[in-house]
Structure formats: C-alpha cells, structure tokens
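Reviewer 2 asked us to include a model.

Predict the structure of this chain.
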Amino acid sequence: MKIVIAPDSFKGSLSAVEAAISIEKGVKKAFPNIETVILPIADGGEGTMETLIVATGGSKKRVPVTGPLGKIVEAEYGILGNGETCVIEMASASGIAHVTSDKLNPRLATTYGTGELIKQALDDGYKSFILAIGGSATNDGGAGMLQALGVKLLDEEGKEISFGGAELARINSIDTSGFDKRIKDGKFLIASDVQNPLIGPDGASKVFGPQKGATIDDVKILDRCLAHFANEVEKVTGIHLHNRPGAGAAGGLGGAFQAFFPAETRRGIDIVIEYTKLQQALIGADLVITGEGQVDFQTASGKTPMGVAQAAKSHGVPTIILAGSIGPGIESLYQFGVVSVNSIINQPMMISEALERASELLEHCSEQVIRSFFYPA
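Predicted model (structure tokens):
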C-alpha cells in the first residue's frame, strides 16, 4: 500500500513539514511497513515559499525591508532549486504577522517592503518570479510596492504621498517614468485564489479590511480611496481595475500587478502542485491524507485540502482530511473525492492546549483514521 501525505500548515502550531511528519508517524504506528510519500503543500499564502524550496532543493536569502507600519523587518525570498526562479511571499515583508492585533491599521499599512524585496531580487539578477500574495496587513492597492520600484504617486503640490490606504485619496497624478525598467523584461507568476474585485461590496476593503483592523468607517474610507486610486491608474495604464476579478487580492496588491506588471495569475495550490510534482507522486497511491488548521466552507475555494483532493480524484485516489477544527459547509468537499473530514481534537480542551499538543493530536488521529480505513488490512 502507498499513502501520499500532503498537508498544509496548521497555523499557530505546525508548519506543513512538521504536520506531514506527525501524520507519517501515526500511519507508521498503525502499519509500519506501509509506503509513505511526504509532500508538504501550501495554497499560495504563507508557507508557499518554504514548501517550494523544500520540494525543489532551493535556498533563501534574508533582506531587511520596510515593514507594514514603516519599521524595518527581516524578510526573505527563496530561490528554487533551478537557481533561476525567485519566490516571494508578500507576507514576509508586508504581512499581518508583523503587526500585533492592537496595532493593525490598514489606513497606514504599506506594501513598500514587498517592492523592496522584489527590487533586491532584481538586483541579484533574477528575472523569473513566483509571488504569493496571501496574508497581507495592507489595503493600499499595492501603492507602496509601486513606490519602492520607482513609481511616483504625487499630490496636488507635486509631492509624493505617504504610506497607507488612506493616503490614496491624495493622489493627483502618477508618474511612471522612474518605474524599474527591469520589470517589463521579467516573468511574474502571481499565486492567488482570491477573485474579489478591487472595490464595492465584494472588494478588498469590505471583505478583507475588517480582519486587518478596519472599522466600519474605515472600510467606507478605504473603499473610496481605492476607487480614486483605480481611476488614476486607469488614466496611466488604460486598465480598469475597479471590478476586475482578483484585483482585490492582498488589499489591492493583485490589482497593481495586473496593471503594471507582465503578470499571469494562477491558483496558488495549482502552482504548488506543479512544482512539488504531486501528480507524479499520486501514481499508484491507495490513499491521500491532507489537512490544515481550519476546514470549512472556504476550503472549497482553492485551499490546500481541496486542491490536493482534486488532484487525487483525477487519479482515482480517495482523500482523507485532518483538521484542527471543522466549521460549516464541509459537505461541498465530498464532490472533490474527499471521503471524510476528521478533527484531531479528541477531548474537550482549550485552544492554547490544542495548539501546544498539535503534533501529538495529529499523530494520534492519523493512526486511528488509517486503522479504520484499511481495516482489516
């Protein structure tokens, strides 16, 4: 028998690699001689760079950049094993993890550090990029990133605006004459499963702003600011970002890539599946085990368990999902070849305890699930 183990991270407790190791331990407790293939997976959000580096035997480079609230943070980018492709997670430079919950403020947060990270990679000679744009703390439409790469966002007095989503309303003109010339010769693959437009009831501010600290009033202000920014961008590029699918990803960063970069956008999970060679690993498999911290109705929108299950189904291989917690709407996953969704929590406990014991709980759940699935093997 052959089992492919392909989980995402269990956020706050286990990386995808650690989760895969815990699952394998449980499987081996049940059936020591079973063949296992470990393939940690990500869906384009945090952990994507690490996953791709592990899968391809790549490396990382650390770079000090401007964090989302203007302070210097240590970010990093990855280089795939081919030595040619650079992987950048915008969260490494401009992510919500850099900001404590009491300091979250999308009116001030900037993507400038993401631009600095791209510029450093260009300086280092890279022309091919994979950009994972999940986990942002920002709602600035990618304005900060553009500024770091030489675009001037000017107010009525011809002065550059400051950082943050609320500053976008002050833009009077956009000067692209200083935009880094190397961008047009690069190849940029954007990893994102977000299809939200830039503005409106389904836009970046309304849907994602509150989780980044935006109040009800902030959401209204930020939406108007992004609309104004989109108007100015259209004057320069001719591209109408307002209701463009995916433009609202990462607080509008997706729109900046669409308007100013020679970029292609694909589901993050599909990119990761390609580079980790999951399809090849599924050949001859009897079962796939995947999972992540939270599984609910959103999982079917392109999260790791759904993407892995789709790939497995194409090979006629069933999938079992393990989760830290299970929310409503998991029924939609069964159409993708999922045979069961299982919580690793085996008794009443505080969230803090569950996070601390995640490895142990995942191992135990894996053992029990695999015994049930293959009984009487």
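The two ends are 10 Å apart (CA to CA). Residues 216-237 form the longest helix (22 residues). We have added this to the supplementary material.
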